[in-house]
Amino acid sequence: MKLLVTGGAGYIGSIVADQLCTAGHQVHVLDDLSTGFRENVPSAAAFHEGSVHHVADLLTRAAGFDGVLHFAASIEVAESVANPEKYWHNNIEGSLALLRAIRSAEVPRLIFSSTGSMYAGDGTTAFDETAVVRPKNPYAATKATVDQLIAGECGASATLGAASLRYFNASGAVLTADGVHLGERHDPESHLIPILLQAATGQRSEFTLFGTDYPTADGTCIRDYIHVADLAAAHLLALNAVTPGVHEIYNLGNGQGYSNRQVIDTVREVTGVDFPLRVAGRRPGDPATCIASSTKAHTHLDWKPQRPDLADIISDAWRFHQRL
Question: What percent of the chain stands above pLDDT 90?
Answer without folding.
Answer: 91
